[in-house]
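Dig into these lines:

——
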Amino acid sequence: MDLLIGAEAFPRAMLLLARSFIAEHETSPRVAALFATQQRWLLYHTALACHFRAAASGGRGLTRRAFANVALQHGIASRNTAHAFFDEVLKYDVIRLADGAADGHTGQVVPSRAALSMLIQWYAVHFEALDLIDGGHRAVRFLGHPESMLACMQPGVADVLLSSPEMRIPGPLSAIFTWADPGGLLMDRLVVGIGPERLPEQSRYLTDVSAISHLARSSGLSRAHTSRKLSAAEAIGCMGWSGRRGHSPIWISRGFYEQYARAQACKLLILNNAFEEASAAIVFASDKHAVAGES
């Protein structure tokens, strides 16, 4: 992980990711809000992994009960929280009833086309970030066969996300923003605000953000909620104002930046490993099919 973070292009890759998260929120704020917390983001990946596993075994879709059982098994959420999340994403057409299902409480559901498109975009931008770092061609290769790649990757990616301490237990500075409240976009906006020119030896990085109201609007949070988040972060030395509070540029600490960077690097490594395994599996399947055809 340290090699990845130390790569010359890594700060630019982080900016690419953070900007894409902000753009997604601006394009589809209602859908993006469904996954704005760390807990909901993990539940989303869990649901999609369950879907692809069911499809691989010949099933038609995921059930509400099975989803809650998996959430409980991994300690992501209580049964009630998992059920509430399931009902909400069904309401907003992130998932929809499978053919022949009577209702969402007992019937099977499948991801909507919009949900699959959002997942494809999520993978693609992370592969673009990896390509920016090492000059690879993952994004192009992935987008050449996105649905078959998703079917190969998503169950394993979800498993690793759920078991990775870096993903499950974020550092104390970033945990203020990400676990139970939708503050992840605040972090993204602050990181975007420092640009790629920050110096490693600096203890603080100055951002281009000064007004709480502007930060609230860009993240879809209320001004009061944003102010509480910033106050909590300020209290532990994670960030502060370079001058008058609310009227001068905000700085973030190097510790804040490094925890954000490690979380992004961990995610990129997980996805890179999944990409390599899926690519090998698809090539093997293609070769096997070709040999069978020749015989």
